[in-house]
Design a protein that fits this description.
The complex is a heterodimer of chains A (87) and B (254). Chain A is an alpha+beta fold and 87 residues long. In chain A, 23% of the residues lie in helices and 34% in strands. Chain A has helices at residues 9-12, 25-35, 39-43, and strands spanning 2-7, 16-21, 44-46, 49-50, 54-58, 61-62, 77-82. Chain A binds chain B through residues 9-10, 13, 15, 52-53, 55, 57, 60, 62, 64-65, 81, 83-87, and chain B through 45, 47-50, 134-139, 142, 159-162, 165-167, 182-184, 186-189, 191, 193, 195, 200, 228, 230, 237, 239. The structure holds zinc ion. Zinc ion is lined by residues 177-178, 180-181, 244, 247, 249-250 of chain B.
Chain lengths: 87, 254
């Protein structure tokens, strides 16, 4: 499956949109990491566990609770947001 | 006219001395100080961000501060919530904060309110408020406040922190994006967040400078941009923000 992913500026230094391949959000992120290896440490707390400030949407829909296992279809748009909720 | 009369436009001898070092700032002057004195600022949350925000707004001579928090002080708050001390554990946060703030500056009005901000009470709470400091620790309440601020045309200075990360932007209804232009409302993560006190202090201090600039008209505001700081490697990033024409909250205000 071919999808586009938009990455929050914190992840890649500037807002980036790129083509990724994969049948789940996790696969697509793994594909994006091939292009931007540094993003792995910024979005994962540990392997398979996203950091609390990351939230992922597919075509505007929240992916929680499946999150990394959320299915991705051809032409989907994945949005990876970063927000700081603490005060 | 008395010192305590916030509506009086003059500054007393005491005030001229007390705020003299900021009055000296070119472009700010006595006029800027008078504007701070006439202002009513609401501080939503007196935790990690709200503590230093309240301290610096009080020292700067903001005439009226309303501080809102429904929580009580817990030992685990003390690494960052500097208005609360060891003896305050178990006390209501607004009582603990109000007491210290009065000692910091007895010449300003401080209104502590121990309550939870809800969709029902937020409009009333905003009353004659000139500016809201977003020092909340959760997104749900932030969205509530954002929506009410947009409705009433009240600017809000958004701050958020986590770990060594911080973000800040100044939201002005009708001019800049609102919080819901930036983030969807259905954010799911509701976990206890890691945080260093100094991270909160840094963002809080920037929030106060934004407040002073906004109220006095001096300098340029952090509008339509978000400053995102990663103190783990001292990376400062300025992110351009876009208003969403279809935004549910502010879409009609283009
Ligand atoms: Zn909006």
């Amino acid at each position: 499956m071919s999808a586009t992913i938009t990455l929050h500026p914190y992840i890649t230094g500037a807002e980036i949109q790129l083509e990724v391949n994969g049948s789940t959000v996790g696969d697509c992120i793994a594909d994006a990491i091939k292009t931007y290896p540094a993003m792995e440490g910024k979005i994962f707390a540990k392997p398979g566990k996203l950091k609390g400030y990351v939230e992922i949407y597919v075509n505007g829909n929240p992916t929680v609770p499946k999150e990394l296992d959320y299915p991705v279809n051809d032409g989907d748009h994945i949005n990876l947001l970063v927000y700081l909720a603490g005060g | 006219m008395t010192d305590n009369d916030r509506t009086c436009v003059g500054l007393s001898e005491d005030e001229l001395l007390r705020y003299g070092r900021q009055i000296m700032t070119p472009g700010f002057g006595e006029e800027g100080q008078k504007r701070l004195k006439q202002a009513h600022v609401l501080i939503a949350g007196v935790g990690g961000l709200g503590s230093p925000v309240a301290i610096y707004l009080a020292t700067a001579g903001i005439g009226r501060l309303t501080i809102i928090d429904f929580d009580s002080v817990d030992l685990s708050n003390l690494n960052r919530q500097i208005l609360h001390w060891e003896d305050d554990v178990g006390r209501r946060k607004v009582d603990s904060a109000g007491q210290k703030l009065t000692k910091i500056n007895s010449r300003i009005d401080i209104h502590p309110l121990s309550l939870k901000i809800t969709g029902e009470n937020i409009q009333d709470l905003l009353g004659d408020v000139d500016l809201v400091m977003d020092c909340m620790d959760n997104m749900d309440t932030r969205f509530l406040i954002n929506e009410a601020c947009v409705k009433k045309g009240i600017p809000m200075i958004h701050g958020g922190v986590r770990e060594m990360l911080g973000e800040i932007t100044t939201l002005v209804p009708g001019k800049t994006p609102c919080l819901e232009c930036l983030l969807p409302r259905d954010l799911s993560k509701k976990e206890t967040f890691p945080i260093f006190g100094a991270t909160a202090a840094m963002i809080a201090s920037l929030q106060v400078l934004e407040a002073i600039k906004l109220l006095s008209g001096v300098g340029a505001l952090l509008t339509d941009r978000m400053l995102f700081i990663d103190n783990s490697n001292l990376e400062f990033m300025m992110i351009d923000l876009q208003k969403k024409p279809e935004c549910r909250v502010c879409g009609g205000l283009l």
